[in-house]
Each structure stands twice: as C-alpha cells, then as structure tokens.
Amino acid sequence: MADRRSVVVGAVVCLLTAGALSGCNGTVSGRVPQSNGGEGAAESSEEAEKRKEETAETAKNRELLSELEAKKREETAESRGRKREAAAQAAAKKLEQSSRTAAKKQQEAASAAKKREEAARAQAKKGEELARAEAKKREEAKKREAAARAEAKKREEAKKREEAARAQKKAREEAARKQTTTLTVSP
Description:
Blueprint: H1 2-23, H2 37-185
Helix pairs in contact: 1-2
C-alpha cells in the first residue's frame, strides 16, 4: 500500500513538473516572439509543433493522473469494503459467540434448577420417610404402652384374684376354725 502511494505521489510530482515546464515555452509576459521572415515561419511552425506535443503530453499526463486518482479511489473503496467485511464478520462471530455463551448459561441454569428440584424432591421424600418412621415409632410406642397397661391390668386383676382367693381361704379357715371351736365347746 505504501509503494502504491509513493508511485502515485511520484507520478503527481512528475506531472506537475511537466506542466510547469510546458508553461515556460519561450514567451515572456504573454508576448509571442516576433519572427523574422522565413526563418521565423520555420521557428513558429517548430514552436507550434512543440506546443502541440506539449499540449498532447499535458493531456496525456492529465489522463494518467485521472486514471491514477480513479485507481486510488477504487483501492481505497476496496480497502474500506474489506475492512467493513472484516468488521461485519467479527461482529457476526462475536454475536455467535455471545449467543453460544448465553445458550450455555441458560442450559447451565436449567440444569442447576433441575438439580435443585431433584434435591428438593429427595429432601421432601426423606422428610416424608422420617415422618412415617416417626409416626410408626409413636404407633409402636402407643402399642407398647397399651400392652404395658393391659399387662398391668392383668397383674392387677391377678392380684385381686389372688387377694380374693386368700380372702376366701382365710374365710374358710376362719369358718373351719369357728366350726372346730364350736365343736369342741359343745358337748
């Protein structure tokens, strides 16, 4: 790119130099040198030919300069186009990357939510199992307590029966003693 610029600058300098030189064609202050007869006509025809060549060269130089400027504009436009295209590709790549990142974050968030939900379910299930186990323990404790009460009641009833049996035995012994005492006292 720097080589092209130096070529363009060199060409412009050459054209300007050629134009300046073509302006110095032997006339002073806009006056045309006067010719002396036949010799003047030959010189004037040479000068006219020289002017024509210089004019043609100037036109050619202008055309070259126009072509160089057009080429430079075209190269600048192409360069801008490439830069825009590269920027667009970079923006598209960045957008795609951010989309991937967002999708990945969303997927991770969904996965984390699912894990939290599963953990909550497991915790709830564990809580239910603990509650069932606790209820079962209470039920078993109630049953043991009821069995203990029933056993205590049975012992109490057995004790009462035993006392009643002792009382009956004592009453029989007392009745037998009375009878034996009455039999011994009566003649």
